[in-house]
Specification:
The protein is α+β, with helices and mostly antiparallel strands and 262 residues long. 48% of the residues lie in helices and 21% in strands. Strands 1-8-3-6-9 form a 5-stranded antiparallel beta sheet. A 4-stranded antiparallel beta sheet has the order 2-7-4-5, with no helix packed on it.
Length: 262
C-alpha cells in the first residue's frame, strides 16, 4: 500500500497529465525488423511470446516473454525479431511528463502478468473506438504497476527458483526436487517460498504452466492436445479444467475473444 501511495503522489506531482495515444499488437513474423529510430511520445512494449533483440545507445538486450520495455520519448532504439522464434508484442504509445516515468528502467519483468492484462484491455478498447480520454485511468494503473515492480523488486532467491521452475515446465517437477535444488527441507522450503510469494511452490508452478498455456493459445493455432504436454499439464481435458478454474473461461472462449478483438 505504501508503494502505491507513493506512486499516486508522484503522479499528482506530474507536470503534464498522462495522455493515451494508441495501441496495437505486433504478430509473429519472421524477418521482422525496425531500424534505429525514436518517437516523440513514450512507448511501452509487452513481450507476449517469442524473442527479440533490442539495441539502444547503452544496451543490447535479448528479450523474452514477460518482459516490459519502456522507451522514453526521444530514446533511439533498434528491434530485431528472432528468426526461429519470432516475437509477438502489444505496444501502447502515450504522452506525459512526471517523476514516475523519469525513474522507470528500460526493462522490467511482469511476473504476475498484471501489466499484460491491462495493456490488452487498452489495445482492445482502442480498436473498438474508445476515446483516449476514457483510457486515462487504466493507463495510470499501468504506470502504477510498473512503478511497483521497479520499487519493490522480487527477492533474488525467489527469482532464481522461479526461473528454474519456468525452464522445466514440460517436465515432471516434484516438491522434493525443488527443495533439493535450494538445499532445504521440504517444510522449510514451502514456508520460505510462501512467505516471499504468497503461494506455495506447487501453486505457483501450476500458475506458470497455465500462463504459458494461455500464451501459446493466443500466439499459435496449436490444439489443446499439443499444448498440454508442452506445459506439463497432462492432457487436453486436465488443461481445459484447470484453465477454466483459473481464468474463469475456457481455452476456446479465450481464443474467440482474441479473434473478436483482432
Amino acid at each position: 500500500m505504501a508503494a502505491v501511495a507513493m506512486t499516486c503522489q508522484k503522479l499528482l506531482m506530474s507536470k503534464t497529465p498522462l495522455e493515451f495515444l494508441s495501441g496495437s499488437e505486433v504478430v509473429p513474423e519472421r524477418g521482422w525488423h525496425m531500424p534505429m529510430h525514436s518517437h516523440p511520445m513514450h512507448e511501452l512494449i509487452v513481450v507476449l511470446g517469442g524473442r527479440m533483440r533490442l539495441e539502444t545507445e547503452t544496451h543490447d538486450i535479448q528479450t523474452e516473454p514477460g518482459d516490459l520495455l519502456f522507451y522514453r520519448s526521444g530514446m533511439p532504439h533498434r528491434e530485431t525479431s528472432n528468426d526461429i522464434d519470432p516475437v509477438n508484442t502489444f505496444f501502447i504509445a502515450f504522452n506525459g511528463n512526471n517523476p514516475v516515468l523519469d525513474e522507470l528502467p528500460l526493462r522490467l519483468r511482469d511476473t504476475e502478468a498484471r501489466v499484460r492484462q491491462m495493456v490488452s484491455w487498452l489495445v482492445r478498447d482502442h480498436r473498438s473506438g474508445v476515446s483516449p480520454r476514457e483510457q486515462t485511468v487504466l493507463l495510470e494503473a499501468v504506470i502504477n504497476e510498473m512503478d511497483r515492480l521497479w520499487t519493490t523488486p522480487l527477492n533474488p532467491w525467489l527469482i532464481d527458483i522461479r526461473e528454474y521452475m519456468r525452464s522445466r515446465l514440460k517436465q515432471k517437477i516434484y516438491l522434493a526436487d525443488l527443495a533439493h535444488q535450494v538445499g532445504m527441507s521440504k517444510f522449510a522450503f514451502v514456508r520460505k517460498y510462501k512467505r516471499l510469494s504468497g503461494r506455495t511452490p506447487m501453486q505457483d508452478l501450476q500458475r506458470m504452466r497455465l500462463n504459458q498455456a494461455r500464451n501459446m493459445l493466443l500466439a499459435s493455432g496449436l490444439p489443446l492436445k499439443a499444448i498440454a504436454p508442452e506445459v506439463g499439464l497432462g492432457d487436453e481435458y486436465q488443461l481445459s479444467k484447470l484453465f477454466r478454474r483459473h481464468f474463469r473461461l475456457s481455452p476456446s472462449e479465450l481464443r474467440m475473444r482474441s479473434r473478436r478483438t483482432s
